[in-house]
Design a protein that fits this description.
It is a single chain. By secondary structure, the chain is an alpha/beta fold. The chain has one domain (about 1-200): 4-Layer Sandwich (Metallo-beta-lactamase, Chain A). It has ten helices and 14 strands. The chain has helices spanning about 50-55, 55-60, 70-75, 80-90, 90-95, 165-175, 195-215, 220-230, 235-240, 245-260, and strands at about 1-10, 10-20, 25-30, 45, 65, 105, 110-115, 115-120, 130-135, 140, 150, 155, 185, 190. The strands form three sheets. The chain has a six-stranded mixed β-sheet. A six-stranded mixed β-sheet has the order 7-8-9-10-13-14, with no helix packed on it. Strand 8 and strand 9 form a beta hairpin. It starts with a strand and ends with a helix. The structure holds zinc ion. InterPro entries: Metallo-B-lactamas, NDM-1-like, RibonucZ/Hydroxyglut_hydro. It holds the Pfam family Lactamase_B. It comes from Thermoproteus uzoniensis (strain 768-20).
């Protein structure tokens, strides 16, 4: 498997994984438009249509597979781009404007692609979220459905932008935790054989949700929740310490989603 690390202003934003399945090359999550570089992939598959994952699908000029109900958003991303700008503000421009993809194909829950990759609908992070399981290699491509994994600091933390659905997220995590994967590959940012991480992340998201409900109950906002999580969770403390997009994009969106859910 080939790894293409994509950067925005010196920040590692996402890793594109290029798999060779029986001579067919498949790229998982091409990244945002502004970090696009071509790969030799024959097909693109997107875990979900957020701009940092699938924004460059139209630049790649290859058939792209997305959740069956969101084909139109990738073929004609004008509305999606508008919503992205409203949600992310200046960070949207940092990632860049998507182009419509000419050949967008629907993914269906439970289907097998290229006779090798199983498709699991895993809503929660977003309604259009799917995970891919490469059965021969035992590799689960988690998308944003199992958090952000930062190997340099050995930390995982949730990425739950609004509109986050806690109940669906937990249900999706439980579903894929029972597959028996031997390796997890996170677009943010690396793979690990520590598959117990799925279980630990499930406990973590429950704890963060509890913290968010408590803060919300007191009428508090994202700053207060950030402070609370930094005290309670070493991962949150490390992310806040590192700053950059890890804090201003990933963690901040997570706080907003948790408080709104
Ligand atoms: Zn996302």
């Amino acid at each position: 498997m080939e790894l293409v690390r994509r950067y925005i202003q010196g920040n590692h934003l996402i890793t594109t994984y290029v798999l060779d399945v029986g001579g067919v090359k498949v790229a998982v999550d091409p990244g945002p438009p502004n970090s696009f570089t071509p790969t030799d992939a024959d097909y693109i598959i997107c875990t979900h249509i957020h701009n940092d994952h699938c924004g460059a699908a139209g630049h790649a000029g290859k058939p792209v597979y997305v959740h069956e109900r969101y084909v139109g958003h990738v073929a004609n991303p004008a509305r999606l781009w508008q919503a992205t700008k409203e949600t992310l503000g200046p960070i949207a421009d940092l990632f860049g404007e998507p182009k419509g993809a000419a050949d967008v194909r629907p993914l269906r829950d439970g289907e097998r692609l290229f006779d090798a990759i199983d498709v699991y609908f895993t809503p929660g992070h977003a309604p259009h979220h799917v995970m891919f399981y490469y059965r021969d290699g035992g590799v689960l491509f988690t998308g944003d459905g199992a958090g952000v994994y930062v190997p340099e600091i050995g930390a995982v933390f949730p990425t739950t932008p609004p509109p986050f659905r806690f109940d669906l997220y937990v249900e999706s995590l439980r579903r894929v935790a029972s597959i028996g994967a031997k390796m997890l590959c996170f677009p943010h940012f690396a793979c690990t054989e520590d598959v117990d991480l799925l279980r630990r992340h499930l406990e973590q998201i429950k704890a963060w949700r509890e913290a968010a409900l408590a803060v919300k109950g007191r009428g508090g906002g994202p700053e207060e929740l950030a402070a609370e999580l930094r005290r309670a969770d070493e991962a949150a403390a490390k992310i806040a310490e590192r700053g950059g997009l890890l804090y201003s994009f990933f963690l901040w969106q997570t706080l907003l989603g948790l408080l709104q859910s």
